[in-house]
Amino acid sequence: MEVFSRWEYKRASTDLIAAKAGVSKGLLFYYFHNKKTLYLETFAYAQRLVSAFIQETVPIRSADFFDRLGGASREKMRLMAQSPFLLDFCVRAYYSEGEDVSAELRRKIGGELGGLYATWFEGVDTGRFRPGVDPAHLLNMIAWMTDGYIHTRRMEGKPLDLEEMMAEVDGWMKLFRAYAYKEEE
Known about the structure:
about 180 residues, mainly alpha, 9 helices
């Protein structure tokens, strides 16, 4: 993950990956038949790591959509802060273009939000929402806004500040809560 977090797929050295793992390049390719398989397995591992961490640490018992989303977001940020290469790897994978792995990553990332909603938001009190408001669409909108935030930081050449990003997400959720919930909520 460290090597793939520092260089895009094409420039990431399998020699360096093998050296950091303390194995020969031949053994690396015995377990991962090629660099693409290694990369996609690393991405799948990152997804499992984030999902398991959130499922273990977030009390998803609240029937409130925004409480669940906020808790999951805060835990995800906490995990990213604890795992030095996870955030950079995930961001680099998310923005992968024109690489041998890009099409496969798009498929995996595209299906992630739908599965996320079905799993994490089961049992949400949808009666709190105004007529015509789709909670899954709200989740997509927040993901798109976060994507825009990350993209802007990268274009400006600035590092991602997780606390600042979480403050932004919290602000967006307050706005969406005011928009999405009925007046009495």
